[in-house]
Design a protein that fits this description.
This protein is of the alpha+beta class. It contains 22 helices and 19 strands. A hairpin with a 5-residue loop joins strand 15 (590-597) and strand 16. Helix 1 (2-69) runs antiparallel to helix 3 (85-95). 21% of the residues are buried.
């Protein structure tokens, strides 16, 4: 019992010692935090003082550069800090807590005001053209005295702050030593207590911990594996969905226009581009009423768009009947459409989609049905396709419209009674005897509207590509074939032109005269064309899926560009790839000059045009950077500048000779009008040059 009491007493004493040590540790830690906060505050105040003085130096340097050269670009630092110096001084005064340092800041206000007044006077003299006065004002040492006084006050302020910082450093070090002693003592006490129990509990606790860690690790790995599989499946599903949606919108036969919640255009599919006459690039962010111009067919008054109603009420709207769409080039076509809201996951309306189609053919078909049989012959004589009716057994042509006669070069009724094999010789060569017996009644599936390409022969013996669509009919028990013939020469030429255009597009993209670099949304290069390989010396395999365009650009230029964009847009832009594409990501056209770095380390100037690549939902999926080597233009500009300088020197020399001549001189134009006189002529005539 006595031993147990001693053990309890020992543990109680140890616990008290530990409690005291912990309390002392908390006290020391609190002192350290106070000292660290004071030290940080003093450092920040000193840094602000340095920034204030640097700002004044930049303003003075810009003012002096403008006074000497008259170049307004030298005033940019001065103008940039004109309204910010007083604010920085007030912030510095508010941040200063050391009482002896405050009088120095109070003395700075009138000195800074006087300095800016002096700089403004010099700038005003220079802008009025008084270069001598401006230079004299700069050289009278008044500005230097003001800057010396400002420098002295800031240095005195910094000396006080540095002394305070040294004191805080000493306090911090002293508190750290106290904390170390306290922690060492507390640690020793804890170690004594821990060793009393560690040996008994170590083995069992260690085994339990190992088993628990192993089971938890296995569980986390299984969950991670399952999560990865789900993410992979979801990613594949999203990609498939986006691809299907893009293909659908680009292949659908109806025009599709999407807008944002303000009614501005965000998407046009190819059919909408064709019907409206606007391209997606031209119409993006334009009001939808500027792109989709509709009127009433009968009154010719502008019709109300359903987009505004859809956005306001969130319901599907349709157009009234007899609506006509007027394209950008003035073409008109009747349309039918509907407008539906686009909603986000929360059900809020974030835009509208307008789906419309050209109903010209539908109207024509309805009109034809209403006109009746009386108009059939007129239609046959006005259609551009040839229509021929012939006997199924003999192939003799019984009826042909004027388009067929013109197609084959015959006069009116010139085709009647002729055998069809005279018009399409290859059918006879195939053993069809020109009567189209190949499409007999036992093979009705092939005779019903089957179209094929053949070669037609005109009356003068010339040939042309022809498309035939044949159907069978019976009149009074007699079989006939109706053939619709279409001259596809223009289509063939168009197909050839399309093939050439595709080849031309491929040639342009793979041109060695400019670089085309496409990236994903994060900036990693995905496409690196032949021109980029030639300009930069990299193979596509060296950069694709490995680096960003920022890695082959001049880093200091990226820093300068990021700083300029941050100032221009009022945002913080990080140097790197973000600085290259920031404007394009906001839908702003961006063309700028940039220095590219080749694989061998050499550099060259390039003009870069940046475009954001977007999916059907206008989300950015990447960027396209098209660059051209600007070395030749830079060289020409340098040569032109040298020539211009020589010309100015020559003009100055000529003028000096003209003015220094002791004789009175004047020059005239071809009409005898005086164009210039020297000082001697002014003195001789008593008239000024003006």
């Amino acid at each position: 019992m006595k031993e147990k009491s001693k053990i309890v007493a020992t543990f109680v004493c140890a616990a008290l010692l530990v409690a005291v040590g912990v309390a002392l540790a908390f006290w020391a830690y609190a002192q350290i935090e106070i000292a660290a906060a004071d030290r940080k505050h003093v450092a920040e105040v000193s840094e602000r003082a340095e920034d204030l003085f640097a700002t004044m130096l930049e303003a003075e340097t810009g003012q002096r550069g403008y006074s000497l050269t008259g170049d307004e670009t030298f005033l940019e630092p001065y103008l940039a800090v004109l309204g910010t110096v007083e604010t920085k001084l007030r912030e510095l005064q508010q941040a200063t807590v050391i009482v002896p340092a405050r009088p120095h800041l109070d003395s700075l206000a009138p000195l800074i005001k006087a300095k800016f007044t002096e700089m403004a006077e010099v700038i005003a003299l220079r802008r009025r053209g008084d270069t001598t006065g401006a230079i004299a004002q700069v050289g009278n040492r008044r500005g230097k005295k003001l800057m010396d006084a400002i420098r002295a006050e800031i240095h005195a302020f910094q000396d006080i702050e540095d002394a305070a910082l040294a004191k805080h450093e000493a306090d911090f070090s002293s508190n750290m030593r106290r904390l170390l002693v306290i922690l060492s003592f507390a640690g020793l006490m804890v170690l004594v207590l821990a060793l009393s129990f560690a040996y008994l509990l170590h083995r069992e606790a260690g085994n339990r911990l190992k088993d628990q860690v192993l089971r938890e690790t296995q569980r986390l790995l299984e969950e991670q594996q399952a999560t990865n599989l789900k993410l992979k499946a979801a990613n594949v599903a999203v990609q498939l969905s986006e691809a299907k949606l893009s293909v659908t919108l680009h292949s659908i036969g109806d025009g599709v226009i999407a807008t944002d919640e303000t009614g501005k255009v965000t998407f046009l599919n190819p059919v909408a581009e064709q019907l409206t006459g606007w391209t997606l690039a031209e119409s993006t962010l334009l009001p939808v009423e500027d792109v989709f111009h509709i009127i009433n067919e009968e009154s010719r008054q502008r019709s109300t768009l359903p987009v505004a109603e859809t956005l306001a009420r969130g319901v599907v709207q349709g157009l009234a009947n007899h609506t006509v769409l007027i394209s950008r080039d003035g073409r008109e076509c009747p349309i039918a459409d509907s407008c539906a809201p686009i909603r986000d996951k929360l059900g809020c309306v974030i835009g509208a989609v307008l789906v419309f189609r050209d109903v010209t053919k539908e109207h024509a078909a309805n009109q034809a049905g209403l006109d009746g049989a009386a108009l059939i012959q007129a239609i046959l004589n006005t259609v551009s396709d040839g229509i021929i009716t012939l006997h199924a057994s003999s192939g003799v042509i019984e009826r042909a419209n004027s388009a067929a006669e013109q197609m084959f070069g015959f006069g009116a009724t010139g085709l009647i009674g002729k055998n069809f094999s005279q018009l399409v010789p290859e059918l006879d060569r195939e053993g069809n005897r020109g009567a189209l017996a190949y499409y007999n009644a036992s093979d009705a599936a092939r005779a019903a509207g089957l179209g094929r390409e053949v070669v037609g022969r005109r009356n003068d013996g010339s040939t042309f590509p022809l498309e035939i669509s044949v159907s069978e009919m019976k009149v009074g028990g007699t079989r006939y074939f109706n053939g619709i013939l279409r001259n596809i020469s223009a289509r063939k030429r168009a197909e050839e032109a399309l093939v050439k255009a595709g080849a031309l597009q491929s040639a342009i993209f793979n041109s060695a005269n400019f670089s085309s670099i496409a990236t994903d949304a994060k900036g990693v290069i995905q496409i690196f064309n032949v021109g980029a390989e030639r300009m930069l010396g990299y193979d596509a395999g060296d950069v694709v899926n490995k680096i960003t365009p920022a890695d082959i650009s001049d880093s200091p230029e990226l820093i300068i560009r990021a700083k300029a964009l941050s100032g221009e847009l009022g945002l913080t832009i990080t140097p790197g790839f973000e600085a290259l594409v920031f404007k394009a990501s906001r839908g702003i056209e961006d063309i700028y000059e940039l220095t590219y770095i080749r694989k061998d380390g050499s550099r060259f100037p390039a003009i870069v045009s940046v475009t954001a690549l977007r999916d059907a939902q206008t989300a950015i999926i990447g960027y396209l950077l098209i660059g051209t080597d600007n070395t030749a233009r830079k060289r020409i500009e340098a040569e032109q500048e040298q020539l211009a300088q020589r010309l100015r020197d020559q003009q100055f020399y000529t003028r000096s000779l003209f003015e220094s001549n002791i004789d009175a001189l004047m020059t005239t134009d071809s009409g005898g009008i005086i164009t210039d006189v020297n000082n001697q002529m002014e003195a001789l005539t008593g008239c000024t040059r003006d």
